[in-house]
UniProtKB/TrEMBL annotation:
<dbReference type="GO" id="GO:0005634">
    <property type="term" value="C:nucleus"/>
</dbReference>
<dbReference type="InterPro" id="IPR004859">
    <property type="entry name" value="Xrn1_N"/>
</dbReference>
<dbReference type="Pfam" id="PF03159">
    <property type="entry name" value="XRN_N"/>
</dbReference>
<protein>
    <recommendedName>
        <fullName>Xrn1 N-terminal domain-containing protein</fullName>
    </recommendedName>
</protein>
<dbReference type="InterPro" id="IPR027073">
    <property type="entry name" value="5_3_exoribonuclease"/>
</dbReference>
<feature type="compositionally biased region" description="Gly residues">
    <location>
        <begin position="183"/>
        <end position="204"/>
    </location>
</feature>
<feature type="region of interest" description="Disordered">
    <location>
        <begin position="120"/>
        <end position="158"/>
    </location>
</feature>
<dbReference type="GO" id="GO:0003723">
    <property type="term" value="F:RNA binding"/>
</dbReference>
<feature type="compositionally biased region" description="Basic and acidic residues">
    <location>
        <begin position="120"/>
        <end position="143"/>
    </location>
</feature>
<dbReference type="GO" id="GO:0000956">
    <property type="term" value="P:nuclear-transcribed mRNA catabolic process"/>
</dbReference>
<feature type="domain" description="Xrn1 N-terminal">
    <location>
        <begin position="1"/>
        <end position="180"/>
    </location>
</feature>
<dbReference type="GO" id="GO:0004534">
    <property type="term" value="F:5'-3' RNA exonuclease activity"/>
</dbReference>
<feature type="region of interest" description="Disordered">
    <location>
        <begin position="182"/>
        <end position="204"/>
    </location>
</feature>
Length: 204
């Protein structure tokens, strides 16, 4: 579920734990390891990958769930090309959170949905006022809510939803295709936060 300011605390307390990436993603080179020497294990919190792939800051939003899944796997592949872990790849996905956390998330998300409905209603009223005076309302700009035919409801990125179950199946197939000695537990297990993951020996 995340630890507030954890990265800042880690960077300030252990500054040598951060390494600069010397090799850009996709560049050629037999040895990479992100410029930090051989790396044994790579642990990824997929929340930091799923959400940017679901609603990217640059470029059009994905038109289907399959596009999201493909973008997620492509992102993981790019990281593997750079880091090249020698022993293990661990992919962590959210499992069911405690009731209080789930209630907090639902309240926040339903409030966001209600605000979106109110904005849409206000927008329609303004457009109608333009038409009433004989003018054509200006074209709508993409407001970051998934316009242009893309996916809109980020609530599907919640443990227990069909979206997350399907993502789990995609990750299983990904593990089978990429990793020997893999082991996967999806986001169905309890534990709150990053409760499931793919583990693979021989991460290359």
């Amino acid at each position: 579920m995340g630890v507030p300011s954890f990265f800042r605390w880690l960077a300030e307390r252990y500054p040598l734990s951060l390494e600069r990436l010397h090799r850009p993603c996709g560049s050629e080179g037999e040895e990479s390891h992100a410029g930090a020497g051989p790396i044994d294990n790579l642990y990824l919190d997929l929340n930091g990958i799923i959400h940017p792939c679901f609603h990217p800051e640059h470029g059009p939003p994905p038109a289907s769930e399959d596009e999201v899944f493909l973008a997620i796997l492509a992102y993981i592949d790019r990281l593997l090309e750079v880091v090249r872990p020698t022993s293990l790849l661990y992919l962590a996905v959210d499992g069911p959170a405690p009731r209080a956390k789930m209630n907090q998330q639902r309240s926040r998300r339903f409030k966001s949905a209600a605000e979106a409905v109110a904005r849409e209603q206000l927008r329609r009223e303004v457009e109608q006022e333009w038409r009433d005076v004989g003018k054509e309302p200006p074209p709508r700009a993409d407001d970051g809510e998934g316009g242009g035919g893309g996916l809109k409801d980020s609530n599907i990125i919640t443990p227990g939803t069909p979206f997350m179950a399907t993502l789990g199946r995609w990750l299983r197939h990904y593990a089978y295709a990429r990793i020997n000695g893999k082991r996967f537990g999806g986001g169905e297990g309890s534990g709150g936060g990053e409760g499931g993951g793919v583990e693979g020996e021989g991460g290359k």
